[in-house]
Amino acid sequence: MSATTTPISPVTAARFSPPPTAARLRFAVAVVGAVGALSSALGIGVLSSWDGHSSADETQYLLTALSLAEDGDLDISDELAAERWREFRFDEPPVQTRVLDDGRQVSPHDPLLPTLVAVPTGLGGWVGAKLTLCLLAGVLAGLTVWGAVRRFEVPLRVAAVGVGVAAASAPFAVYGNQIYPELPAALAVTASTLAATGPLRRRGLVAVVVAVTLLPWLSVKYAPVAAALFVVAAVRWWRAEQRRDVIVAGGVLAAMAAGYLLVHQLLWGGWTVYATGDHFVSTGEFSVVGVSPDYLGRSVRLVGLLVDRGFGLAAWQPAWLLLPVALGFLSVRRRHGGAGPAGARPAGTGALLLPMVVGYLVATFVALTMHGYWWPGRQLVVVLPLALLLVLRWLGGAGDRGRLAALLLGLVGVLNYAGLLVDGFLRRLTWVFDFEGVRAPYQLLRPVLPDYRSDGFWALHVVWIAVLAGLVMMGRRAASQLPRREAER
């Protein structure tokens, strides 16, 4: 076969195909961003809970946003006394805030999210707040497309379709209209990662510092992921001999951390916002992770966070099962990196992997529970864009069969979200209650998924350990065969 007719592998084609024009990329970013924003906005009409348009934590964020918009402070005692919650709830919300010695009531939630939605809430009420989150969901989707193409060499079509499918399904589409810090935190993590993997300029490191500073103000639970993001950037800049910039950035972050602790002592009376929580009066603010945590028991979440019958990511979007395949594939490519396009290490894979693993471990061992009065996947949303970029990086070099399988799995997730919207509009479910009864393909998956809220989950748990391990090995085998296939061609 002549050189002009010899076929090349998908990896080689993906790596050496000309990059998309700026106009095509901008168009894709705009379209996928619109898909993300619209998909989230469609969910505004679904009740958050049977109590109304806000669940327990959402109510606290909205009351704080109203206080910031109207009073310029975090004290929600007057909002509670005036029953302002009636604007978005049918029943009185559960008590979360204890009364401080000076009579103030400050919500046990970090203030950056209420600050972001304060003006929209003051102007448009709870709908204005949720529309703001929808816009951020669109920005996140568009930014992820741009990062996949520009930072990780993913073909534009793969990036646009992959991110579009993810943005039009749970959990991204759900948290794009729920008043929780998860979606803004995911946006900050994505922006920081793209800055850390971009050109070695001072403004890139500044962007990382800003994002890392903001994350704990969205929620203190994001502090470990924020630290991992800075480590990624610091190592890269340090190796590039820009050590003075790294030292200065570390000093700035140390000062920001001290300021964070000082402000919390002054306003919340403790090291975290949980100091004002009614639930932690007797057990202390750090009991938010559990009074006597059973870390060995929590280890089942390593599997459960992905495949739990109700709260697993793959239950609602089966395409997340491709993550183990991508991890296996990219691990082999890293080991054999250096010679030729098939073995070249994907740029920035480590920058994606470290924060994602830290976030996954926090969700596994630090979070009080993976089940709760929220939409599934809450504890992982902050790092899911990084997981998505890893999957896209693999799909960029996968063959047509791999991409087709990914698309079919992704479309099942889109149909699940569509079913949730229909049943939600018909008042059969809410984002917090009864969603497991949805009339969607999800019901077909339930029998094969373990229910970690029952005592009989162990058999399926073991099965899924084997399945996930098999998916990792599948990815490794596919990667290990690439050099041979390249040579044969």
What does this structure look like?
- This protein is mainly alpha-helical and 489 residues long.
- The chain has three domains: 159 residues, no CATH class; 101 residues; 196 residues, no CATH class.
- Helix content is 61%, strand content 0%.
- Helix 8 packs parallel to helix 10, helix 10 packs antiparallel against helix 17 and helix 15 packs across helix 18.
- The longest helix has 39 residues.
- It is globular and about 70 Å long.
- It starts with 9 loop residues before the first helix and ends with a helix.
- The N terminus is likely disordered.
Provide a brief overview of the structure:
The protein has 489 residues and is mostly helical. The protein has helices at residues 10-16, 22-42, 56-70, 77-81, 112-150, 156-167, 172-175, 182-196, 202-218, 223-239, 243-267, 295-298, 301-307, 313-316, 322-335, 340-343, 349-366, 384-395, 400-425, 442-445, 458-480, 482-488. The model is unreliable at 1-16 and 335-346 (pLDDT under 50).
